[in-house]
Amino acid sequence: MSAMENTNQDAHVEPIVHASHDLHHSHDDHDDHHHVETFWNKYVFSQDHKMISKQFLITAIFMGVLAMMMSMVFRLQLAWPGQSFPFLEPILGKWAPGGVLNPDFYLALVTIHGTIMVFFVLTGGLSGTFSNLLIPLQVGARDMASGFLNMLSFWFFAASSLVMLSSIFIESGPASGGWTVYPPLSALPQAMPGSGLGMTLWLVSMALFIVSSLLGSLNYIVTVINLRTKGMSMTRLPLTIWAFLVTAILGVLSFPVLFAAALLLIFDRSFGTSFYLSDIYIGGQALEYNGGSPILYEHLFWFLGHPEVYIVLLPALGITSEVIATNARKPIFGYRAMIASILGIAFLSFIVWGHHMFITGMNPFLGSVFVFTTLLVAIPSAVKAFNYITTLWKGNIVYTPAMMFAIGLVSFFITGGVTGIILGDSALDINVHDTYFVVAHFHLVMGSAAIFGMFAGIYHWFPRMYGKMMNKQLGFAHFWLTFAGAYGVFFPMHFLGLAGVPRRYYSNTEFPIFNDLVDINVMVTWFAILAGTAQLIFLFNFFYSIFRGQPAPQNPWRSNTLEWTAPVKHIHGNWPGAIPEVHRWAYDYSKPDKSEDFCPQNVPMTEKEIAEGAH
Amino acid sequence: MTLVVLAVIVLFVLAAVKVMSIYELSAELRGGRNDDVITEKEGKNQAFYWVLFIAGLFAFFIWTFFEYKDKLLPEAASAHGPEIDLLFNVTMATIVFVFFLTHIILVYQAYKNVYRKDRKAVYFAHSNKLEMIWTIIPAIVLTGLIAYGLNVWNDVMYSGSKDAMVIELYSKQFDWTARYGGKDNTLGKTDFRKIVAGNDLGMIEDSKGNDDIITKAEFHIVKGKPVSFKFRSRDVIHSAYMPHFRAQMNCVPGMETSFEFTPTITTAEMRTKLKNKNFNYVLLCNKICGASHFNMQMDIIVETQEEFNKYIAEQKNWMQQQAAATPAAVTASIK
Ligand code: HEM
Ligand SMILES: [Cu+2]
Ligand SMILES: [Cu+2]
Fold it and tell me: B6: phi > 0 → left, psi -120 to 50 → alpha, else beta; which?
C-alpha cells in the first residue's frame, strides 16, 4: 500500500497525519521479515495491543478476585459480628486475633476493596483490556499510535498494583481511610495506623496508576483520531469506540486533578504544609498546621471522583451497545442520540461533583446548583436505557452469554440509576448521605453494571482474544447465579440505609436501634457467598477455555465490526494484507435487501444503497 | 494442613478439567455443534428464565418491602422532617414506578423477540419522535422533582429563627461533647491550642463562655423549640447524624458548620409510639474517622420545657465546673 492510496478520498474522514502513513507503510513492507520473537518481547514486554490487552485483563481478574475475597471477609463480620472464624487467623494473623476481624483492619479491607474495584478492576482493567483490544481492531489500525507508550502504560499499572498489594503486608497495615482518603484522617498517622506507611504506599500506587492511565488514554485518543482506516468516519465508528474515546478524554481531564490532590496531600503529610489542615489537636498535642481546609481536598477529589464513575461506566455501556446490537441482530437504536448522550453525560459529569458534598457545610445555594446539574445527567442516561430497550424491540435476540450480561447491565443501570435521583436531591441526601443507601446505589449502578459490562465484553471478545470459544452452559450458570447474587446483596442494603445505618461501620451492635436489622445482614452475606462462589465457574471457564476451549471461527457472532475480519491467529499488524476499508456504519444488521442478517463494515455499498443515501 | 487444602484444591481443579473435556467431546459426538452458536431451543430456555427471574425479582422486592418497612426509621421527629419524608415518598413512588415499568418492558421484549431461524429482525435504526418522547418526559418529571426538592431544601437550610437555642456539638475521636450557650445563649470563644485535660473544648477566657454548660453522653432539647446546632471537630472529619430528625452535617476541623431544626416529638412520646420503653434518639458519627467510628454516639433526649428547665438547672456551668475542679493546668491554660 502506498502512502498515496491511503490518502482520504471520503469526505467524512478527517485528514490523517503523515506520521501515521509512514507507520502503516513500513508495517506493510516489513511484514515478511518479522522481528525475532522471544518469550520476553512476546509475553512480557510486548508492544502489541492484543497482548497488552490480555495482560491488563489477567491482572484485573487477579485484583478483582482479591477485592472480592476481601468483601467476603468483611461481610462475615457484618453478618456475625464478633464471632470467631478460625480460618481467618492463619490468613490475616494479628489482624484477626482468635479469628475475629480487628476494627482497624476492617476499615483497611473496605478501603482496599473499594480502591481495587474502582481503579484497578473497573478503570485500569476495563479500559485497559477493551480499549487496547478494540480500538486498533475496530478502527482499522495496525496497532496503537505508540506501542511503546502502551507497553509503559501496562507496566505502570502493574507496578501500581504491586505497590498497592505490598501495602497489605506492612506492619501498620494498608490505607484505611476509605477509598476517598479524606484528610485529616488520611494525613495524620496519629489518627489511625493505616495513615502511616500504608497511606504513603497508597499515594505512591495511585501516582503510578495515574501515569498509567494518562499514557493509555493519550494513546487511545490519538489512535482514534488519527489512525482510522479509510472510510471510517467518526459517524461510522462503533459505539464501543465512541465510549472508549470519551472515557479517555474524561481521564485525561480529570486524573491530573486527582494527581494534584494527592500531591498536596503528600506535601501535608511529609513536608509540613497546611493545604488541607488547620486547628487540629490529636494524640495529646496541638499541631502547627494552620489555614488549610479539608474541604479543598474534597472538591479536588470529587472533581475527579465523579467523572471517574463515568470512566468506569461508559466503556461498559459502549460494550453493551455493541453486544446488544449484534445479538439482537438489529441496528442500535438511535445511534446519533447514543453519541449525543455519551457526550452529554461526559460534559455534565464535570459539573456535578458537589453532590458528594451537600452536607459539608457548603453554601446551600451552591448545593442547589449541583442538584440542578446532577438531575440533568439523568436525562441522557434515561435516553440510553430506553434506546437499549428499543433495540430489543422486534429484534431476533440470540442469547449468547455476552448478551445475557448486557441485558443484565441494562437492568442494573436502571435499578441503580433511579436511586441517584434521591441522592442527587440535596434535601433527601441529608438523611441518606453516607448510609448503606449509598452503598446500595453505587454498587448497583457502578459496581454491578460495570462488572456486567466487563463480563459481556469478556464473553463476547474471548474468541478474538484467545482464538477459542468459552463454554456457553457455564456462561449461563455464571450469569444467573451472579445476577441473583448481586441483586440479593445490594438490593436489601437500601433498607439498611433507610433504617439509618451508616457505611464503613465495623459492626452495628453498639446501637440498639439497629438490633432488628441483623437478619438483613445475614441474608446479604449469604447472597454474597453465592455470588462469590459463582465466580469460580467463570474462572474455571476462562482458564479452561484458553487452553482447551473449542477453536473459534473467524466471526462467531456474525458481527459487523472490523475486528472480526482479522485472522483468528494473532499477527503483528492485525491484518496480513492491506487494512480493510470501511464502506458503511457498524450496525447494518438485518438490512431488508440483504440475504444475510448482517453486513460487515468492509462490504462495499450497492448502487441502490448509495442512491438511497445510506451511510 | 495447608498442604492438604492445597492438594485438595489442585485435585478438584484437575477433576473439573477432565469432566469438562469429556463433556465437550460428547457434545461434539452428539452433533451438538451446529452452525448456530446458540440454538433456538437454548434461546427459548434463556428467554423463559428471563421472565422467571424478573418475576422472582419483583417478588423479592415486594417481600423485602413488607418485611422491612417496619424496621426503617420511624416517623420524623422534627418540624422539617415530614416535609423531607413526603418528598422522599413522592420521589420513591416515581422511581419505583419507573423501575417496574421499564423492567416489564425490558423482560417482555427479551421474551418475545427471542431468536427464530425463520425470522429476521426489523431494520429500525432511529425515530426522532420516540427519542423526543423519552428525552422530554424524563425532563419534565425531573424538572418537577427538582423544583419540589429545592423548595424543601431551602425551607430546611434557611430556617434560621432568632429564638433558637444554641448548642455546640463538638466531635473528636471517638466521642461527642455538647455545649449550651447558657443564659446568654451565646457560646464562649475557644482555641484548640488551649486544650488540656479538664478543658477538652479549649475554652478561653471569655465572659460569654462562663455560663456555657457542657455535657457528655447525652444532651437534652425541648419539644417545639428550634435548636441551632454549631458543629466543630478537633481532629478529623466527623459527621453529626441524627437520623430521627432527618438531620446531618459534617464536622470539619478548622471551620464551624451549622444546622437548625425543631424537635416535635418528645422521647417519652416516641417510646409510646414505638412501644419500646428503652428507645432513645441518638447522634451517630457518619463520616469514617478511625477504628471506633462505629461506636461514636450520644443520646438525645427531647422533653417538655418544664422538664428541660429542671434538667438544665441541675447542670453546672463552665465557671462553676472550674471552681469545683480547678486543676492548676486549666487555670493556667485559659489565661
Ligand atoms: C462480591 C461483590 C461485592 C460485595 C459483597 C461488596 C460489598 C461491599 C460492602 C458491604 C461495602 C461497604 C462496607 C462498609 O461501608 O463498611 C463495600 C464498599 C465498597 N465497594 Fe464493594 N462489594 C462488592 C463488589 C464491588 C464492586 C464490583 C465494586 C466496584 C465499583 C465495589 C466498590 C466498592 C466501593 C468503592 C466501596 C466503598 C469503599 C469505601 O467505603 O471506601 N464493590 N463493598
Ligand atoms: Cu458523583
Ligand atoms: Cu467520628
Answer: alpha
Cβ–Cβ of A491/B280 closer than 8 Å?
no
Residue B334 banded pLDDT, cuts 50, 70, 90: low
Owner of C-alpha cell 492445597: B6
Cross-strand pairs, B249 = B240
* B248: closest CA of chain A, how far (Å): 6
Domain count, chain A: 1
Which domains does chain B carry? 165-333 (2.60.40.420)
Residue A17: pLDDT over 80? no
| Interval A345-389: pLDDT, tens | 999 999 999 999 999 988 999 999 999 999 899 999 999 999 999
> Is A308 within the bounds of a domain?
yes
Helix (H, G, I), strand (E, B) or coil at A274: coil
The span from the CA of A311 to the CA of A221, in Å, is 14
Region of poorest pLDDT, from A515-519, A528-532, A534-538, B270-274:
A515-519
Interaxial angle between packed helices B128-157 and A364-392, expressed in degrees from 0 to 180 and rounded to the nearest 10: 150
Helix (H/G/I), strand (E/B), else coil: B175: strand
- What is the Cα–Cα distance from A24 to A560, expressed in whole angstroms? 23
Q: Let me know: does A49 contact A133? Beta carbons within 8 Å.
A: yes
In sequence order, the β-bridge partners of residue B194 are: none
User: A352 is written with which cell numbers?
Assistant: 456535578
**Residue A239 to residue A261: CA distance in whole angstroms:** 33
Q: List helix spans (H) across A47-125.
A: 49-79, 88-92, 103-115
Q: How many Å apart are CA B228 and CA B157, to the nearest integer?
A: 11
| Nearest one of A457, A196, A188 to A319, comparing CA atoms | A457
Binding-face residues of A in 38-57 toward B, CB within 8 A? none
User: Which member of A192, A329, A587 has the closest CB to residue B291?
Assistant: A192
Its domain, for residue A323, covers: 2-9+47-612
ipTM of the complex: 0.93
How far lies A162's CA from each of A92, A549, B135, B186, in Å? Answer: 19, 31, 45, 54
Q: B174 touching A, CB under 8 A?
A: no
Q: Is residue A34 part of a domain?
A: no
The answer to whether position A116 is within a domain reads yes
Distance (Å) of CA A554 to CA A138, A235, A329, A461: 15, 26, 18, 12
Whose CA is closest to atom 17 on ligand 1? Answer: A110
> pLDDT for A252-285, tens place per residue?
999 999 999 999 999 999 999 999 999 999 998 9
B322 vs A261: CA distance, rounded Å: 44
Contacts of B19 (CB under 8 A, 6+ apart): none
Residue A556: closest C-alpha in chain B: B37
Instruction: Using a CB–CB cutoff of 8 Å, tell me whether B246 touches chain A.
Output: yes
Q: How close B229 gets to chain A, by Cα (Å)?
A: 12
| CATH (domain of A161) | 1.20.210.10
Q: Of A28, A26, A19, A150, which is closest to residue A579 (Cα–Cα)?
A: A28
Tell me what the pLDDT averaged over chain A comes to.
91
Domain-located, residue A20: no
Residue A509 half-sphere exposure toward CB, CA atoms < 13 A = 9
Give yes or no for B247 touching A (CB within 8 A): yes
Q: How many CB pairs under 8 A join A and B?
A: 353
Pocket around ligand 1 at a 6 A CB cut-off: A 68, 71, 75, 110-111, 113-114, 117-118, 122, 178-179, 439, 443, 446-447, 451, 489, 503-505, 528, 531-532
Ligand lying closest to the C-alpha of residue A101: 1
pLDDT digits (tens, 9 = 90+) for A127-182: 999 999 999 999 999 999 999 999 999 999 999 999 999 999 999 999 999 999 99
Angle between helices A401-418 and A449-466 (to 10 degrees): 160
Of ligand 1's listed atoms, the one at least distance from the Cα of A505 is 16
